[in-house]
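Intended use. Records like the one below are meant for learning the mapping from a protein sequence to its folded structure. Do not use them to infer anything beyond what is encoded.
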Amino acid sequence: MVRKLRFILTLFITSIAFAQNTEVGNVAVKTQVPAKTITNVTAFPNPLNNKSIVSFTSSMEQTVYFEVKNVLGKSVYKLKFLANSGNNEISFLKDNLTAGMYVYSIQSDTEIVSKRLVIK
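Structure written out for the chain above:
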């Protein structure tokens, strides 16, 4: 019985160590957290009258998805974009969108970066 309890306690401590990314005995446990691949996201001009340039930095060449949603969460614009390593720009035309606040996002395989965009 004591042996069984000791085994269960060892399993419990090991599971806590896995959750906390620590070391138990001789077993090192590390959790892989993806690094940010999209940084420096900005839109200029913002607020915009007709056109805005969304710029961002990508740490590697990757496919990203640019999306604009209205305040109700409905997608009003989508674009698949091949980002180069380094600085990138996406041209966004308001077309028939009405004045108001929108949310634009850039999504990679590992993350989503979202910001506000205002149309005058």
